[in-house]
């Protein structure tokens, strides 16, 4: 990923997003959280093509409740 020069290069590389999507689909809470964090960073830096949003949303529906709760709590703690 460090070899890619811009966010548009990252957005064009499906393998990066697929790695995070696969991590989210696992039943391991820690890996799911890492996948969520990675996807959040890609989205925040506009490094995701709009055509990838349906697969991201479908994956988020399948993420374990525990992983999602830990992820949202950690994100919310940044604001307080």
Features:
mainly alpha, 80 residues, 5 helices
Description of the molecule:
The chain is an all-alpha fold and 80 residues long. The protein has one domain (8-77). It is 70% helix and 0% strand. It has five helices and no strands. Helix 2 (14-25) packs antiparallel against helix 3 and helix 3 (29-44) crosses helix 5. The relative contact order is 0.16. The model has no long low-confidence stretch (mean pLDDT 76).
Shape: globular
Per DSSP, what share of the residues sits in E-state strands of 2 or more residues?
Answer: under 5%
Query: Overall mean pLDDT score?
Result: 76
How many domains? The number is 1
Q: Pick out the low-confidence regions.
A: none
Major β-sheet annotation: none
Rg over C-alpha atoms, rounded to the nearest angstrom: 13 Å
Would you report the number of β strands?
A: 0
Q: N-to-C terminal Cα separation, in Å?
A: 32 Å
**Number of helical elements:** 5
As a percent range, the share of helical residues equals over 70%
Please provide the ordered H/E string of secondary-structure elements.
HHHHH
Structural class of the helix and strand makeup?
mainly alpha
Structure summary:
With 80 residues, the protein is mostly helical. Helix content is 70%, strand content 0%. It has helices at 7-11, 14-25, 29-44, 53-62, 65-77.
């Amino acid at each position: 990923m460090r070899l890619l020069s811009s966010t548009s290069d990252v957005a064009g590389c499906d393998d990066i997003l697929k790695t995070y999507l696969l991590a989210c689909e696992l039943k391991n809470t820690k890996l799911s959280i890492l996948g969520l964090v990675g996807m959040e960073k890609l989205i925040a830096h506009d490094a995701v093509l709009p055509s990838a949003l349906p697969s991201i949303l479908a994956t988020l529906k399948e993420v374990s409740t525990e992983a999602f709760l830990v992820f949202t709590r950690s994100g919310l703690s940044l604001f307080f």
